[in-house]
Amino acid sequence: MGSSSSSSRNIMKWLWCAVLVFILAPHYFQLQLLQVAEGYVTCGTVSQNVAPCFGYLKKGGSFSYPPPACCNGVRALKNAAQTPADRQTACRCLKAFLSSQIDQAKAGGLPGKCGVSVPYQISPATDCNRVR
């Protein structure tokens, strides 16, 4: 009987955990959406949106053209960065992501390949403080 009550307690613990996840998860995602809707851009936002582009941007990458998920992320990032402060943050984050493993020419041309216009060049030489 001891193992039966122990397994019942374990099941109850898992059920409570599941209930908490279902209660708290929507609030977490709602906060994430509010941050993007308000134009609140962080390096996490930038990273999340450009992550699908790394296969295209990486030197010797497997894509000759940005995949649709990449361009969707570029558009989402542009839409999120509505204020000069947000655009400056996005610029700084993008510069930080540029590394020796990233094809700088592809990175600079990425917005155009996705049909998106951004008010600055994605380049290590860009002065993000001048982005408006």
Give a brief description.
With 132 residues, the protein is mainly α.
Question: Would you kindly provide a written description of the structure presented here, covering whatever features stand out?
Answer:
64% of the residues lie in helices and 0% in strands. By secondary structure, the chain is mostly helical.
Distinctive features:
single chain; 132 residues; elongated
Element layout with pairings:
Blueprint: H1 2-37, H2 43-50, H3 54-57, H4 68-80, H5 84-97, H6 104-113
Number of beta-strand segments: 0
Low-confidence stretches: 17-21, 24-38
Percentage of helical residues?
55-70%
* Biggest β-sheet strands, sense, barrel: none
Overall SS class: mainly alpha
Global morphology: elongated
